[in-house]
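[INFO] parsing input record for Alanine-rich protein SCI7.12c
[DEBUG] input buffer:
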Amino acid sequence: MSDAVWSYAWDLQDIGLEEVARRTGGRGVSLATSYHAGRFLQPGNPRRRSYFPQDGTVYWQVDPARWRGAEIAPVEADIVATEGDKLGALIARRDAGGPEVAAWCVCLHNTRAGMAHPEHVTRTAFGDPNFYALCPSSPAARAYVTGMVAEIAERYAPDRIELESPDFLGFAHGYHHEKDGLGLLEEDLVLLGLCFCEHCHARASEAGVDLRAAQERVTGLLEASFAREMPEAQFASLAELAALPELAPVLAWRSEPVTSLIAEAKAAAGEVPVYLIDAEGSAAGGVDRAAAAAACDGLVFCAYDTPAERLGPLLAQLRQEIGTAGLRAGLSLGLPQVAGPADLRARVAAARPHVEGINFYNLGLVPAARWDWLAGH
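[DEBUG] output buffer:
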């Protein structure tokens, strides 16, 4: 049983590796090696109490020669030069007998890259770009993901690479200052979350799926929704929406770019295991869970909001769904996702029989004292 703590490079810098090990009970570290923007309140960090990460950057020493000629290339975060290569430091500690190291790799959620390369982002049925989301059908975006995985695997050889967001991110994704005066219904979000970029059109066409009819139908449905004075569902259920003859083949196809990208990332990693970071509802992003698990080495299933009484049965069901693939659980120490120490310990106990390890979220985002909740667990 191997546990890990999802962590950021700036927290390792400010807390120090020795204190991190003491605080977290010697657990391994899953380091954010590529990450998006945000504003983080950090009660667990003694120096940077709130922090704005540099958008869409990576946290290892990038070899520019590897990326010469690449249409989309990683941008190394400034703190790698000023504060050191934390991935390298973790690997050195592991090689000296220390705990395991995982590389937590955010794949397609990258506003910086999307703004720089708008021709490779997802697009709504109206053709509007989602700058925060590179599209898994884009050859350049796929090469960016597999190139990152290959460089991390070849140069650092972590114990595991964990892929976050190798799928379609959808419309409601937490971009800052989102505005919605309409009152979007769930069916509207499904429709707005479908991608109709040129790369999806081309890739779907190769698979014998014509996106044009679906795009016309989706545009019409959204225009009808936008014209209403008050929100009103057009379908009795999402299943009824998904069964539309124009949409059904598209919804069946859209897992293909995601599953194949995961498989290509696995191939790029060589001998390093690759896991998909998954959660309930991921099918909306094109994740076919069983196929995705078969395409790599397993899943890290985030169950932050799942109470202890549901967690065991849920993980048992997942085990049946993915067969012999690896399975880890992701649990949060953050409020209100967890109610307190007894709640967290109950969730850990419920998860243990079904998983090979647990990832805990997140080192700097919770008070140092909260890690005591895991003592002996």
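[INFO] The first strand starts at residue 4 and ends at 7.
[INFO] shutting down worker
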